[in-house]
Amino acid sequence: MSGSDFREMHWMITMIHHIDVGLVVLDKNYRIEVWNGFMKNHSGLTPDQVRNREIFKVYPDLPEQWFRHKLDSARLLKSRSFTTWEQRPYVFRFQNYRPITGSSSYMYQNMTVVPLQSLTGEVEHIALIIYDVTDEAVNKIEQKLANSRLQEISRTDALTQLFNRGHWEEQLRQEFARMQRSHRPSTLIMLDIDHFKKVNDEFGHPAGDEVIREVARRIKRTKRSTDIAGRYGGEEFAVLLLDTEPDQAMYFAERLRKAIAKKAVEFEQHSIKLTISIGISQNSPDIDSAQAWIERADEALYTSKREGRNRVTMSPNKPHMNH
Q1: 235 is annotated as an active-site residue
Q2: HEC profile of the chain
Q3: What region holds the GGDEF domain (predicted)?
Q4: Which of 39, 87, 131, 192 is the most exposed place for a label (fewest CB within 10 A)?
């Protein structure tokens, strides 16, 4: 080997050792032949400690079946293949020491698998190139989280954490369309806090907010996970009870009415007694839209108000059991 060839090889080895990506070369039996500086720095294992050892012995938590399949395919097809952090967060579990991405405890990695052909065209070795993509991954994950939080905010009422009116109405429209296809019974409940203006006038708006929050909490405690509850207006709430017959809806409404009447809301030094009025409407063939259904439940609610409050009124629907 000439001096210039030797120098060139020396530079190449130095470069491989110092590049900011991991480089691992494995023979046909998955034994390690090259383990560069990146791999040494992040694994804590020197090239001498790993050379000629099977990679699964060095890294027993490697997903062996997946890893073998990945490498065998590249060897067979004689073409490189890739894996990204979105498919598998990492190949080698390395700690993440970078303060900028402190929200991740391990390094996210992309990997390129490169079959290395000999002069005869045989694939005797496979190179793995490991890229640290933690910054990109964490940014993307945080972006997704931020978007889902924004989505959550856009459909949630800030005061009560129930659905806001816009999102609740959208849910109602979807369920109404589903019910028209399935003809299953469902019930709509509209409820309103009695004499709410007096609460604001007597105890102030912060007390009014606490009363609204407490009613929302009691609705959450009373409803099932499948029921869809929303804050419909200032002190008005709506609950869609899915797959619910009128007598079950009446039981729910009475239980909620009693729970609210029974226990005063404590706010600062005040004990604020509350009642609610409730209107119920069963879905029926003569209701032709979600809006008409809301209006029917609202009429029942106003009947409860008119007849003295703190009561439940069932709208005189004909439940559609005849389908």
Answers
A1: yes
A2: CCHHHHHHHHHHHHHHHHCCCEEEEEECCCEEEEECHHHHHHHCCCHHHHCCCEHHHHCCCCCHHHHHHHHHHHHHHCCCEEECCCCCCCCCCCECCCHHHCCCCECCEEEEEEEEECCCCCEEEEEEEEEECHHHHHHHHHHHHHHHHHHHHHHECCCCCCECHHHHHHHHHHHHHHHHHHCCCCEEEEEEECCHHHHHHHHCHHHHHHHHHHHHHHHHHHCCCCCEEEECCCCEEEEEECCCCHHHHHHHHHHHHHHHHHCCEEECCEEECCCEEEEEEECCCCCCCHHHHHHHHHHHHHHHHHCCCCCEEECCCCCCCCC
A3: 184-317
A4: 87
